[in-house]
Amino acid sequence: MTPVALTIAGSDSSGGAGIQADLKSFAALGVYGASAITALTAQNTTGVSGIHPVPASFVTAQIDVVFSDLDVGAVKIGMVAQAETIVAIADGLKRWAPRHVVLDPVMVATSGDRLLAAEAIDALKTTLFPLSSLITPNLPETAALLNEPVASNEADVERQGKQLLAMGCRAVLVKGGHGHGAESIDYLIDGERSIALAAPRIATANTHGTGCSLSSAIAAGLAKGEGMETAVRNAKAWITDAIAAADRFAVGHGHGPVHHFHKYY
Questions:
Q1: Active site (annotated) includes residue 18
Q2: 211 is catalytic
Q3: Does residue 24 have an active-site annotation?
Q4: Is 110 a known active-site residue?
Q5: Catalytic one of 211, 221, 236, 256
Q6: pLDDT tens digit sequence for 104-157
Q7: Which burial class, exposed, middle or buried, applies to 7 when counting CB atoms under 10 A from its CB (0-12, 13-18, 19+)?
Q8: pTM for the full model?
């Protein structure tokens, strides 16, 4: 069977993040991608100039038609924009019971623009976290979800990760790309252990879509039948290479995209 993954997320008109990055990630890793769009953004590498949410009922329609026809092996959830959309997504997940759900709690774009309404944060935590196999917040998102300062050491990262785990998800990947030092260290935390996953920190401004692409790569691995730790390790290795190859591109005047197809050109 062809492995299939579904991304439920917003559209990035510049093609570097969101639905576009998710579908590129799936394709680069040999997985057929389907999508349910939650919002349209007027966006480029320098920022977000507008957001047009898709009505929750139409998000539901997209989810239902995909699941009714395709054998979805994993779901990736990105930008959800508003509380009504969160409820629609949760209802769809309950209705179709996908095997794996990777939730990237997108709150702020690389440019600093807010992508999630403040009043929707509680709905995200109480409604979608318990349905997720894995959530993938970066360090600032982890802090914002907990109303705490950004973690500055390993002990704080693990403590905050465990607090998120207690909200009902099965595993947490706290991403260390916003940290400091020679290595970018992510922490995979589940009910039994915490695994530090280190990679060289790459000096580049072209990191647009990094979080979207990493979570999609994990979903792609799960759709192919990989276990959680293997999927996370393989996805981190792939995104590290995609970031390292990003400067091959000359796209835009701000934070350019990573190179999803670095293996091919």
A1: no
A2: yes
A3: no
A4: no
A5: 211
A6: 998 776 666 667 777 788 899 999 999 999 999 999 899 989 989 999 888 999
A7: buried
A8: 0.95
